[in-house]
Predict the 3D structure of the following.
Amino acid sequence: MSASSSAQSGFHALIELARRGRVELRPTLLRVLVDQFVQEPVHPPLERARFSELACRLLDNVDVSTRSIVAQRLAAYAGTPGVVAARLARDVIVVADPILRHSTALGEAELHAILDTCGIAHAIAIKMRRDLPESVARRLGSTGKGTNAASPHTLDMAPQDMALQDMVRGDSDPALTLTLARRFLTTDTEERKLILKAMPACPATAHEERIRRIDRKFGEQLERAALRHQSQEFAVLLRRTGVPGDLAARIVSDPAGEPLLAVCRALEIPFGATSRILLFLNPEIGASVRQVFALAEWFEEIRPAAARRLLGAWCMLAPARTAREPSLARGARDRTDMRPSVRSGVPSADRLPARRAAFEP
């Protein structure tokens, strides 16, 4: 029996095993099934159909980690069935990202369908494709081959993704940076990671250099406030960087801790001190060791310059004047006469330029 025939026989045996196998074997079976499938450059139509049916069934019953591994393998395989690629492309972004960026199995119509139904993170991944169809490029506000301007098709984006039109345009409008900074405060972890990765390519803000010059002792002051569980004092101190009071309170109280992590990275506070700030300042973070470990892993990936750009953009957002203002912000304003002095050359928040609209440039 030839090597090719042996591989085909093994592949068919795996299909039968996956159909009859126990639930706990599904992740392993799916990975092995995909490994076997990508070994052959071409498969007969019936075999592709059987693989597609079984792979999609298993994908619905395995964990994110397994789906992510499978997506990585199939994204680089030219023979990936379209139905499997489409299933993975609509998954959570950590699974969908390699498929959206690299898989040739996604056609023009499928990319438009994904833009219709998925979120901003999926659209950013599509934007990174080398073979971006001209109609998709126009829809994203890009200038694909043969185009000279953005198309009115950008209006077809889903309402929650209107900020994407600014994000992917690639122009030098400072509002782009503010749009992403505002989006960071309201979105999930995966999109926050994408936003921070995008920050270096965004227009700089006027506050970045001042933030870079802040004395390291300021980080020690923040840590001391955190160790005393003084969230209000911490928020007041944070205002000395230029962040509006209401936004400082929002950063401190964010249950995921990611805005706070970005602030610490922008100020180049070592992770030892950063971890203590996260653990002591926000009880929701301190109660989850897993969450702290996840933040520790992300801390190493964040470039301080990207975090400074984000923090600098937050300094340019206006204070909120809505009913959703956290009570912490009110407490912070009541304690302005008690804030410690900062001998770092950071100007007082009282001398910051007036801001006119709720979280608007």
Remarks:
- The mean pLDDT is 76.
- The longest helix spans residues 3-20.
- The two ends are 70 Å apart (CA to CA).
- DSSP finds 22 helices and no strands in the chain.
